[in-house]
Amino acid sequence: MASGVEVRHGKIRIYFNFDGEKCREPLGIPDTPDNQRYAKAKVDQVRHEIKIGQFDYAKHFPNSKKVEQNRLATWMDDWLAIKLQRVADSTHRGYRNIVRKHLKPAFGDKQIDTLDRVTVEKWISSDLANLASKSIKEAMAVLRQLYSFIRTRHPQITDPTAGINVTMPDDDDPEPFTRDEIDAILNTPPRQDRIQELNLIKFMLWSGPRVSEAIPLAWEDVDLEKGVVKFQRARVRGKFKTTKTKRSTRVHELVAPAREALQAQWLITGGLPAQTVDVKQRDNRTIKREKLHFVFLNTNTGQPHFSDHTLRDRFFKAHLARADVRYRGPGQCRHTYISQMLTAGMDLQWISKQTGTGVEMIRRRYGKWIEDDAPDMIGLAEKRLGLSK
To answer: One fold for both 72-150 and 179-378?
Structure first.
């Protein structure tokens, strides 16, 4: 029998080496002299195409198990299933959306060894042309991770994303609220007795947590006597989780307005019963059940705010309009706190510890003085040096 041809249960199949492994493919034809000659010609053609780098597995054997196993859509599903146990829910949701909206429609039916850089470049310039640079970069990051995953089993396959860089625009500058705007926000009475929401905004303006960290703050995290709180969890899209990094879990010293906001809240929620919630831990697998007395509740539901979106869309936008303050999202409260601390001349290391943000990030993003709030630096220097009269 010719090399590369064999008979199994009376039917002919061929075998050949491809990508470092021996492949066997049944032809589904009986063992006859004519079929033997056909099989020999088939295996010779396959070997020749492999040798010159033009072999297309799916073209020759469309019903092969290897074709299904090596479809990019199959690998995408496997990669997502593994990531589900390793990343935060919000991160996985982003991955899943990118795969569903962009990767599967473009490449799902392709074999893992047929995608090349030129095809990816064309995809970026056509299918992704209307997306923001950030979205393109995120889609490319997922495709890179996917091929890194594929290459753990097929190291000979070329990564089609190698050498492709997506240029990002400069980050938008923070747009913190000025002292006049802070006063306008806090001195404008809220509608529908939503004093809890205004207390929450006051607390965020003068302590600088991420919105997702302020929403699930519990009285178990607060020591009003010492004037400190511990930020150790977040709430994103209704789910509770520990903070993203160890740096983010921090003990924060409160300035007077933040203490006042908490004191006002104690009169509202300090005596309410605890709620039992599931908190996903940093390994993204372990769930810890906690009984917590939440500090800030949604006035309309009596529950902690579901996400930053509910606070933004159902309170903050309308309140800023009532206060006649130009709209910026509630995330700017964090920028406001940091800018105010910089304006006061506070040490960068202290601000970093307070906010869980690296010193270099503070220098890069928040070192800009707000002109309306800038102090008399000469007067400040003279006072600190004992030169003022």
So the answer is: no
HSE of 78, CA atoms in CB hemisphere, 13 A: 14
Q: What are the tens digits of pLDDT across the range 280-337? A: 998 888 999 999 999 999 999 999 999 889 999 999 999 999 999 999 999 999 999 9
pLDDT-derived band at 189 (thresholds 50, 70, 90) equals: very high
Domain 72-150 in CATH 1.10.150? The answer is: yes
Reported as a pLDDT band with limits 50, 70 and 90, residue 368 is low
- Of 211, 207, 201, the C-alpha closest to 234 is 211
Per-residue pLDDT at 371: 47
- List helix spans (H) across 305-347: 308-311, 317-323, 332-343
What ranges do the domains of the chain cover? 5-69, 72-150, 179-378
> Residues with Cβ < 8 Å from 226, sequence gap 6 or more?
none
274 φψ region: left (φ > 0), alpha (ψ -120 to 50), beta (else):
beta
Q: Where are the beta strands (DSSP E) in the chain?
A: 5-8, 11-18, 21-30, 222-223, 228-231, 233-236, 239-242, 250-253, 275-280, 287-292
Q: Kindly tell me if the per-residue pLDDT of 94 is higher than 90.
A: yes
Q: For all residues of the chain together, what is the average pLDDT? A: 89
What class, spelled out in words, does domain 179-378 have in CATH? mainly alpha
Sheet containing strand 275-280, strands side by side = 233-236, 239-242, 275-280, 287-292
Distance of CA 106 to the CA centre of its chain: 23
pTM of whole model > 0.85? Answer: no
- CA angle (241, 247, 252) in 5-degree steps: 90
How confident is the model over 224-274, as pLDDT tens digits? 999 999 999 999 989 999 987 777 889 999 999 999 999 999 999 999 999
CA-CA distance, 26 to 49, in Å (whole number)? 19
Q: φ and ψ at 18, to 5 degrees?
A: -145, 130
Please provide residue 183's backbone torsions phi and psi, each rounded to the nearest 5 degrees: -60, -40
Contact at 8 Å (CB) between 232 and 224? no
Residue 17 has φ and ψ, to the nearest 5°, of -95, 130
**Distance between CA 239 and CA 281 in Å, rounded?**
11
